[in-house]
Each structure stands twice: as C-alpha cells, then as structure tokens.
Amino acid sequence: MGKVVDALRARIQTRDLPKTPKGLFNALMRREKGNTQRVADRLGISRRQVQRIVKGDRDIRKSKAETLDALRREVSKDHQPRVTAKGIKDAKSRGLTIETRASFGFHAAAGSTDDARMRRLTEDVPEELLDDLFEALRNGDEEKAQEIAGEALAMEYFRDGGTRADGLDVTFSDIDYIDFH
Fold it and tell me: C or N terminus of the chain, fewer CB within 10 Å?
C-alpha cells in the first residue's frame, strides 16, 4: 500500500497480510466462502478468470498489475476484522500519536519562508480527525491517509491546536518513516 496506511495497519493488527499473490487470492476465496462470482466482482475480473485460477489453469502471479493491486486492497479490507475493530475502538478511546520524519513545507503570508525541510515530529491526532483517518485505512486510500495525517500534524504542531498561524497551509511529503502509537 503506502507508508501511512501500512503504519496504521501495523498499529491495529496483529498479523501481516499474506505475502504472495496466491496467498492473497486464497485468503479472499476463504473470505467469500468459495463464491467465484463475488471474488470476480471484488477484483474487477470475469468469473471465468477466477475459476481458471482456482482450477490451476492460470497463475495469479501473471495477472495484470491492476488485478494484483485490487487483490491486495480487497484482502486488506477484510483482514482480521475483529482485531481491527478492537484496535480502532482502543485508538479512539485512548488517542493516537503520530511519530514521523518527513518534509514539511508552507504556504503562508509574504515574508515567511516556504521552503520544505525535513522535521522529526511526534504529535497527537486530534479526535475530530480519527474517524476520517480510519475511514482512509478501511478504503486503503494512501493519499487521503497522508493528507489527514499531515492535517493532524499541522493542527497540533504548526497551528498549536488553533491558537496561532491560522492561515498556514502545510504540505506533508517525502516521508522518511511514520509510526502510530
């Protein structure tokens, strides 16, 4: 997926996703109880292609990149649903902290520097952004998760919870590492 989604997933899940395309495919087949039509719908391929993969006439590893991406995305949506729900509930009740080293740039009033530079930050995610962050995780949307994480860091570090730098627009990019606690 991406650095932000993977870090969030690591925070709330206890087991990793299967590594190989065949393992991912088998996990999806188990989740859908062998229903080839539902698997085909979720992957955006034909039912016949799914049947060929199950039978062994076709190798899932040789599928299109879009199909493999869809396979990883669909399996990650359903992976450890009870553990994920418990992790999300726990994070909402106790809070979530982001620790990262990334590039931060600014769009602000004239006279201020807007050059991006690497910073190491550790800040809490505001409660009002937690639902959106976990929704991005459920959808596997790396771009949205990165945008929300950047907004959380901007609100807490740069805008100090809304007490200063109200019009400051912060860009969050070039993530070296990111971790959620």
Answer: C
Joined together, the tokens standing for residue 110 give 């004239």
pLDDT digits (tens, 9 = 90+) for 44-58: 999 999 999 999 888
Contact 145, 7 (CB under 8 A): no
Read off the pLDDT of each residue in 71-90 and give the average, rounded to a whole number: 88
Distance CA 17, CA 65 (A): 18
Q: Tokens for 181, please give them.
A: 């606690």
- pLDDT score recorded for residue 29: 95
34 and 104 in contact (C-beta within 8 Å)? no
> In angstroms, rounded to a whole number, what is the distance separating the alpha carbons of residues 129 and 59?
41
pLDDT for residue 81: 87
**Could you give the strand order of the β-sheet that contains 169-180, starting from the edge strand earlier in sequence?**
117-124, 97-107, 169-180
